[in-house]
């Protein structure tokens, strides 16, 4: 049947009404798109990468986003009163006592893991498995030949473990003593000094054992092995080396104000490999954070688009 102008007008009006209704439903699911979601920007590059990615994805969904510099501990006050909306990279070994209190009070909500595969412990360049046969088993470090290969004039007859800088604190010396290992922990002068020595050891095949962690940008460059850590004899878990969780936290009113954004952040994940590559581009190549993050967004639409679609459909 051929439609008359009147029927066409009616049909068009109905289509327009349906479109407006659909847009209204989507807006209701998005929540407040005018008031920006304020993401905490923490001190370290990895967290800044994660936060920038999360913000760009929220913007793709239609939200306004602000990036607010925040300290690791002060951020919890802002999250509790809503002056900060969310933080996407909280390491469980660096939360103090404010975080658990705010969580217990219901002022903030933990919305799950960021997805990073964290590492911490004694690490070594892969060639060390030839120098100390038996690695990554920690008992390989007991062998006299292994200790001799790692020894320096400062540690003879023990082998040297390059430890965290002194002002970071460390658990290595106590673990060495508890397990009667022929090692001496020597603090590094700085993170930069640790990285420089690691690169030199890799280039010259000089024996090296060091306390380290991941994700770290140098791991995009050097493949490290990780010692299966010896037992920790202490009753204090803070004196033991354990893998931290990395989690996402939002203000308690986030889900009501930005429902779809809440679902997007719950789904949001970053792999350690991706974060390390992005950090390396920023720290080693001098590329701007925003450009590096935008490149990931452009090349990983198949990763993040389903999070957005599931949240706003």
UniProtKB/TrEMBL annotation:
Gene3D superfamilies: Glycine betaine-binding periplasmic protein, domain 2, Periplasmic binding protein-like II. Pfam families: OpuAC (PF04069). InterPro entries: ABC_Gly_betaine_transp_sub-bd. CDD domains: PBP2_BCP_2 (cd13643). Coiled coil: none annotated. Residues 1-27 form the signal peptide. Residues 35-298 form the ABC-type glycine betaine transport system substrate-binding domain. It comes from the Bacteria. Keywords: Signal. This is ABC transporter substrate-binding protein. It comes from Pseudodonghicola flavimaris.
């Amino acid at each position: 049947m051929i439609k008359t102008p009147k029927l066409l007008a009616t049909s068009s009006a109905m289509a327009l009404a349906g479109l407006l209704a659909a847009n209204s439903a989507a807006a209701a699911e998005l929540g407040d798109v005018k008031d920006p979601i304020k993401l905490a920007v923490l001190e370290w590059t990895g967290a800044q990468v994660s936060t920038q990615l999360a913000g760009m994805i929220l913007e793709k969904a239609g939200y306004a986003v602000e990036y607010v510099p925040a300290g690791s501990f002060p951020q919890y006050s802002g999250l509790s009163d809503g002056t900060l909306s969310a933080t996407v990279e909280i390491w469980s070994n660096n939360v103090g006592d404010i975080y658990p209190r705010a969580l217990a009070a219901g002022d903030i909500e933990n919305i799950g893991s960021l997805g990073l595969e964290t590492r911490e412990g004694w690490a070594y360049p892969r060639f060390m498995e030839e120098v100390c046969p038996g690695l990554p088993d920690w008992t390989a470090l007991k062998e006299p030949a292994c200790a001799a290969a790692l020894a320096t004039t400062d540690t003879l007859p023990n082998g040297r473990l390059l430890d965290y800088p002194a002002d970071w604190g460390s658990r290595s010396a106590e673990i060495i003593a508890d397990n009667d290992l022929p090692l001496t922990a020597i603090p590094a002068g700085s993170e930069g000094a640790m990285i420089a020595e690691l690169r030199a050891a890799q280039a010259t095949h000089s024996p090296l054992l060091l306390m380290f962690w991941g994700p770290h940008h140098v791991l995009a460059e050097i493949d490290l092995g990780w010692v299966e850590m010896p037992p920790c004899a202490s009753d204090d878990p803070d004196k033991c080396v354990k893998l931290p969780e990395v989690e996402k936290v939002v203000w308690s009113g986030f889900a009501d104000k930005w429902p779809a954004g809440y679902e997007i952040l719950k789904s949001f994940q970053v792999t350690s490999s991706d974060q390390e590559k992005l950090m390396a581009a920023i720290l080693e190549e001098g590329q701007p954070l925003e450009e590096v993050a935008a490149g990931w967004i452009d090349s990983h639409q198949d990763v993040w688009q389903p999070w957005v679609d599931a949240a706003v459909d």
